[in-house]
Specification:
single chain; UDP-N-acetylmuramoyl-L-alanine:D-glutamate ligase; 3 domains; 6-stranded mixed β-sheet
Length: 464
């Protein structure tokens, strides 16, 4: 079968393309911007890419067009598909019907921590020998890729040289609440039908598609409604919004983390914690990750893996070897004892949590926060009242935006700690000029930020 993917170069649709190709489908695709690294990654898998949305692509005659949620009405190829009444469906629907239908799906939902928790969970299952499939909105460093089918050597053959394989029953997916497609305004996660679901937390986000928090809660409850009663819902026991979702109706067993009544973690040192269940000590975790948010993510992953049959002690042993996810407090380099980090944080809660975790680790050493406010919700000004507060832990803040007036107004409460820029080269020069040995530069953006990380490291080298 041949599928042609519109909007193939996004992380999610690119993951679908890789999984489809690995499953034996012929895969082609198109996008407005076809360039490395996604283009080279897909082409190395034998996937033909086309730049743009020309109507001539109809002549490829795929069995079905798979539509990413970046595609809108007015897109020339989409209009031609509609005019000719050709078969099409959304990426989440295709994934559900062709890959997830007969799998034990473990889905990770929530405003924050989805990518990290999904990566932890996939790694625990893999460490336990279950070789899960997964589709994650980032690249777990333990795997080096964001998506795979999850094949295991077939039990039907005893020949160690045999290439015979079967699909692992387990599939871990990052369950996003963003809408599915222009023709399907339900959240993506309602397509996944998990047996095990993690609800990490719930805050207002995606103001471009959700008018208020109540609307998001409704989508989360649609998700809860399709989890079977032989499944498990793993919830953050400290999150009142998640609890309110469950009060609308819940037909599935629930386990809590973050409270003494359920699963909890006692911090012993920056990178060391004891894990408890209902007050009973389970084991001790020593690992590389920082912050309360990662301790909560770890508890959620341990519970979900336990539901799939992985003992807690095995899960903790796996997490001791967990290497985190690219762009989640990823250390990009150190020059003259100045450390540069890359983080995906783009919501005030995530920004504050990341800064708090770094502060707890480094003590009184200086933090230079570099923020690119580029998410739709940030640009719409929804978080204007919270953004300055979320950055207070930083010793100095650089904000990169074309709307410097907005930035100065929004961050005015930080007094003289803020510099606003609309020129990337000047921004890099100014950061390099004020840093000194022992500083920590935390770069936060949900985009590529113009390749600032390598450019800044280069500038720091020149300043030695």
């Amino acid at each position: 079968m041949h599928i042609h993917i519109l909007g193939i170069c996004g992380t999610f649709m690119g993951g679908i393309a890789a999984i489809a190709r690995e499953s034996g489908y012929k895969v082609t695709g198109c996008d407005q911007d076809v360039y490395p690294p996604m283009s080279t990654q897909l082409e190395s898998q034998g996937i033909e890419l086309i730049s743009g949305y020309s109507i001539e692509q109809i002549q490829l005659q795929p069995d079905i067009f798979v539509i990413g949620n970046v595609i809108t009405r007015g897109n020339p190829l989409m209009e031609e598909i509609l005019n000719r009444n050709l078969p099409y469906m959304s990426g989440p629907q295709w994934l559900s019907e062709n890959i997830l239908r007969h799998r034990w799906v473990l889905a990770v939902a929530g405003t924050h921590g989805k990518t990290t928790t999904s990566s932890m969970l996939a790694w625990i299952l893999d460490y336990a020998g279950l070789n899960p499939g997964f589709l994650i909105g980032g690249i777990p460093e333990n795997f080096g890729l964001s998506a795979r089918v999850g094949n295991i050597r077939s039990k039907l053959t005893q020949d160690p040289e045999s290439d015979s394989t079967e699909v692992s029953p387990f599939f871990v997916i990052e369950a996003d609440e963003y809408d599915t497609a222009f023709f399907d305004k339900r959240s993506k996660f309602v397509h996944y039908h998990p047996r095990t679901a993690i609800l990490n937390n719930l805050e207002f986000d995606h103001a471009d598609i959700f008018p208020d928090l109540l609307t998001i809660k409704r989508q989360f409850h649609h998700f809860v409604r399709i989890i079977p009663n032989n499944g498990l819902i793993v919830i953050n026991g400290k999150d009142e919004n998640i609890k309110q979702v469950l009060t609308q109706g819940c037909w599935t067993p629930v386990e809590e983390f973050g409270t003494e009544a359920g699963w909890s973690a006692q911090l012993l040192a920056d990178n060391e914690m004891d894990v408890y269940f209902e007050g009973t000590h389970q084991d001790r975790l020593c690992w590389e990750l920082l912050g309360e948010h990662n301790r909560m993510n770890a508890l959620a992953a341990l519970i979900a893996a336990r539901h799939a049959g992985v003992p807690v002690k095995t899960g903790i042993a796996a997490l001791s070897e967990f290497k985190n996810v690219k762009r989640r407090m990823e250390k990009r380099g150190t020059v003259n004892d100045i450390t540069v980090y890359d983080d995906f944080a783009h919501h005030p809660t995530a920004i504050q949590t990341t800064l708090n975790g770094l502060r707890a680790h480094i003590g009184q050493e200086r933090i230079i926060a570099v923020l690119e406010p580029r998410s739709n919700t940030m640009k719409m000004g929804v978080w204007n009242d919270y953004l300055a507060h979320s950055l207070q832990e930083a010793d100095h803040i650089f904000c990169f935006t074309r709307d410097s007036q907005w930035a100065k107004s929004t961050l005015s409460g930080l007094n003289n700690k803020v510099d606003c820029h609309d020129d990337l080269n000047q921004l890099i020069q100014d950061i390099a000029a004020i840093t000194k040995p022992g500083d920590h530069i935390l770069i936060m953006s949900n985009g590529s930020f113009g390749g600032i990380h390598d450019k800044l490291l280069s500038a720091l080298h020149k300043n030695q």
